[in-house]
Amino acid sequence: MGTFSIWHWLIVLVVVLVLFGGRGKISSLMGDFGKGLKSFKKSMKDDEPEAAESAKQIKSESVAEGEAAPEKDKAASG
Fold it and tell me: Looking at the whole model, is its pTM more than 0.70?
């Protein structure tokens, strides 16, 4: 019970061959994964200036709202 029989190993081998096949499919999958990762990093780098601009815009809007809030409180109190 502690070891696998030959049938267990044959089933595992068949499953591995069906999933991954032969002739370097794993290496081609990893190559495609690497290309996708590189493309993702490139697009993130391209988006950084836009993200920085939108963060500055949000920050300036929140500062402007923060200055306007005390005026609303003064008007409400009288």
Answer: no
